[in-house]
Amino acid sequence: MNAIALASNQFPPFPSEYLPGYIARLFHLLASNNMKKFFSFNSSRTIGKTDVLVPKIALNFAYLDGALNGGGAFLASHQNARFWRGFINEDYFKKSLSTIKASNKSTKRLFYGEEVLASLKPLKWCEECCKQDEDTLGIGIWHSIHQVQTAQRCPMHQCYLKQINLQRSETLLDYPVINESVIKRSSDVYRGKILQQLDIWSGTIMSRPSEETRDWLNDVRADMKYALHLGGGKSTKKHQLYKDWRAFLKSNAWLNQADLQAMQMLTTSNHFTPASLLSGSATATHPILFMLLMSFAKEYSSFRVQF
Amino acid sequence: MKSSVNSHVDETAVLTDWPGPEYNPALPALNITNDKETFFSRCKVRPDERFSFANAPINERKRVSLDDMFMPNELSWRLYCLVTDMMYRGYNYPDRNIKDPAQQKQANLTAFNPEKAKEVLKLTERDKGVGATLGAESGYGKTTTMNKVLSAIPQVYRHKASDTCYNREFIQISWVKVKFHGLSMKAFIRRILANIDYLTDDSLATELTDKNSVTEHIDKLLQHCTKYNVGMIVLDECQKMVRHKNNGQLTAAAIDRADFLQQMVNDIPIPFLLIGTPILEPYLAQSPYLYRRFIEESAMIKELYSADDIFWTDLVRVYFESYVLPTGGRLSSEDLADIHEHCVGNISLLKILVTRAFGCLSRAQNLNEISMSDLIEMAYLDGQNEIETMKTLLLDGSKYNAEKIKVKKQKNSASSNVVGKKKSAVEQAGEQAAQESYTALQLLL
């Protein structure tokens, strides 16, 4: 058993705590000075890239043959927040996790487009939640619900969130809790209109069971294909659609920070054309990109969003 | 107008009973008893009450009596009360209660906001540490007794998830005991961590080396004591921290160790119990802080058992009548007096005498012809050298005197060993063994 698994009972995660934030807090709680060892699954393997850190570490809490009580539920709440599980075919999701479990290796990304959304991933926190946490837990912790990419307001207090953008060399290990340094460096959360719309939609989607979301997605895909005339037809119309889609992506300030590289990838890659996004393959489009397309379709065609 | 006495009676009559502290799962885990007999039954090891050793081989009787058998006495009860009281007081704070969110809150504060964590300790007067000392001369059975006392308290307790505030299983370490072997204080801390590792299958000690600072060592220990909600740290052989220069002053290393001890006790708000010889008392007195912390509630044992002490008599009888010579009948009052004269009421000396008696028995030609009184005399002669040296040490209470005696004995060894008396083969073999034991004894002291 590695250090994380062993320590997770002695220093448990708090309800609604953001899993990567908890891992960072645990690292500091143990006063560990050996990061490689701390993040190792056994003596020979270590965890890879930061962006795949979460699901791999999560396995420690969820799949230890019931040794850790409540681990599965704990994982589920975080996976929902991060992966919008209803957007993924359940079999594919399970296969992906079992591959990680069996080989301790990173697998393919579950969503296309994860990499272009980096600028939507600042660490966010709520001032009211922070005050409450300091009273009860001694420190301000990172909450998973605030880290949903589209979130602008705290669902508990309805106030706008604060955000801190990590620099390239930084990770959550540098900010395990919301302390003075975080407060000093934080700014008001980005409040784009499109993002606000996406937040309302994602709030609805994530509050529903995954199965319902899957059924809903099939209907929405069909509706959008029909509204955008993607079932067949003239290629000139398609060409115009793609052109307008790219213009929509560029003109709307939905990205939290200007990210030219991401924008270029989004507007040039075949993976992110309306037809690809609606293809419904097992490896799905990132929900945010999908919702952006919903927003585009709503503006561009007769498509209407219904839940 | 009511008198003040009557008024007080009226007030107490309407007061409700003290509700007791909040439920803390760490306390039932200690399985504390307030009944002396119950404690005795938990820690005593008396195979002779269940079996007859009359037909058991000598080496087996020797092993069981010297290694296994334990008779609890007033000292062990007194230590049990001291230890459990310290643990009880140590655990009775919200931040030591795993059922209370304050426990994890304090863990967070300790790691991320040490100043605020210290404020919490200050409010409960724990910022100066909690400690006690068990001081007694070598041979009084401090370590053996403490080991048995601690063995009556479960060292590792695995709490169910329902015992904790956040519904997770929790491993509690009630106590950790380590010996100070003249190591550096950093190595000493690593040894405490290694002890915790052994109990929990953790690997905390491997993360520290001598390259890490003293503060890092103490911080790490604090974090891990918090992690396992450690109830008490027992430091044995603490007299080895004490070193003097030729002019009688403490060496710089000894002063550093005292500073380190003070810092450790200051920063880690759990009870510490020091075990050592009486030399520890003046050492701690060098620092008024340490003296107050550790001597306030100490158990300094300086007296030796008297000849008519019930425990002493019982112990001697059990050793000789049940194990050494089970077929030799009861010890006479003269035998008891002889044994007390040889051992001056000291348990280690008694054990040396018992060891010698077993040695004599194993070398004897005809066991049936040996009487109890002969065996006692033979055993004494066999171990006379070391018994007398240690006796002098105990009675004088000074190691320097013992050294002088040792030198004197070595100078006069040719004449002192044989005083107009022809030595038997048993005595000659005993002498050789005595020399080996003497060397071992010097190492011990």
Order of strands in the sheet with the most strands of chain A?
A: 2-3-4
What is the level-2 CATH architecture name of the largest domain in chain B? 3-Layer(aba) Sandwich
Q: What is the helix fraction of residues of chain A, given as a range?
A: 40-55%
Biggest sheet record of chain B? 5 strands, parallel
Cα-based radius of gyration of chain B, to the nearest Å: 26 Å
Share of helix of chain B, binned = 55-70%
Poorly predicted regions of chain B: 398-445
Report the principal-axis shape of chain A. elongated
Number of helices of chain B: 20
In terms of quaternary structure, what is this? Answer: heterodimer
Tally of distinct domains of chain A: 3
By CATH's scheme, which homologous superfamily of the largest domain in chain B applies?
P-loop containing nucleotide triphosphate hydrolases
Briefly note the CATH topology name of the largest domain in chain B. Rossmann fold
Structural class of chain A, by secondary structure, is mainly alpha
Task: Please give the order of strands in the largest beta sheet of chain B.
Answer: 4-5-6-1-7
Spell the H/E element sequence of chain B: HHHHHHEHEEEHHEHEHHEHHHHHHHH
- Distance between the first and last residues' Cα of chain A: 44 Å
